[in-house]
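Risk register update: the risk of archive-format incompatibility is retired. Evidence:
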Amino acid sequence: MKKVLIDAVSLLSPLTGIGRYTYEISSRLQKLSADKYEIFFNYGFHSKELYGLLDKQTTAEQKAKKLQSFIKKFPLLKKLSRSFYLFITKFYRVEYDLYFQPNFIPNSNIKAKKLICTVHDFSFMLQPHWHTKELIDHYNKNFFKLIKKADHIITGSNFTKQEIIDYMQIPQDKISVIYHGVNHELYKPYPQNELQDTKAKFDLPKKFLLFVGSIEPRKNLLTLLKAYNLLTNDEKGELPLILVGFKGWENREIMQEIQKNRDFIRYLGFVSDSELAHIYNLATVFIYPSLYEGFGLPPLEAMACGTPVIVSSVASLPEVCGDAALYVEPTDELDIKNKILVIAKDEKLREELSQKSKTQAAFFSWEKSAAEHFEVFEKV
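Archived output:
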C-alpha cells in the first residue's frame, strides 16, 4: 500500500478557504483511496488522524490547536516556529510515495518520491499589501524556488491556471484545474421552521444583506461599506448589512466604519458551519465584492442555499458563478450601491437568481473534486 502525506497545518486554525479545501478533500480521499493509500497528515508531527470539523476533538487535536493559537499571538514566535518546524522535519525518516501540499509551498525536507502542490492564486505577488510582511517574506524566499520541484500542480480555476502559465512558464500538461466544491448536505435550502433558532440567536432582521469572508483588505470590505453608506437611512433600515467571518488583519479602518454605522451594520464574527448555512438561507441577498479570487467559496455556498448573489466581475468569480449572479465593478461604489438597490427592490429578479443559483451550484461538489484529485494522484 502506498504511503501518502498531506500537509494539514491549516486545519489547526479556524477554517477559512484553504483549511476548508484541505479538510473537504482529505476527508473524502481517505474513503476513496482506503484500499490503495495509507494517508498521513502533517501537523508539524505526522498522524493518521484528520483534524478539522469533528464535533468531538481528541486531546491531541485540542493540544495542537491551543499551541498553534498561542504561537500566532506572537509574530517572532510564529516566525521561529516555522524555522523550527522545517528543522525537525529533517529528522523524519519515513519516505512517502507521494507528498501533497494543498497550501502553496511544499516543505523541502519531506522525503517523497512524488510531489503535488495546489496553487490557489497569486495575490502574494500581485497585491503584497493584502498580506503580512512575514508571509510575503516567506513566499518571496520559498515559493518560486520550491514550487518548481512539484511533479504536478492543481489549481481551482482556469483563470489561475493561465496565471500559473504566465508567471511560472509551467507546461499546461503539468497543471490540472479542479474546481472546489460545496457540501450539499449542509449548504442547501432549509424549511423556515429549521432556521428560527439561528435567527433568534443572532437576532437577525426579516430582510438583510449578507457578506461572508475574512475581515481583511483583499475582500474589499471598505468599498462595500462606503457603497452601503450611499444608501439613505430608510433604505439601510429596510436592508441592514450583516458581516460574518474570521477577523483577519489590517482591519482597524473596517471595524471603525462598522462602528460608525452600528445602527445598520453588524459583525457577527466567526460562526459554526450549520449556523452559517442557516444565515445564508435567511439572507435576502448575498454580496461578495472581492478584488481578487482564485476561486471564491462563499458565493458558491450562498448559491447552493438558493440565495441571490452579487459578486465582482473580476478574476475567477464569473467562471464560478456563471449567469447565476448579478455582477458589479468592485472599485465602483456607485455601481455596488445601485446593484444592491436593484436586487433589493425586485422580487422577481431575486427569485430568478435564486433558481439559477441552485442550478449553478449543483455542478460543484466536494465528492467530484476529491475524485478528480484522486485521478491526479494515480496519474502522478
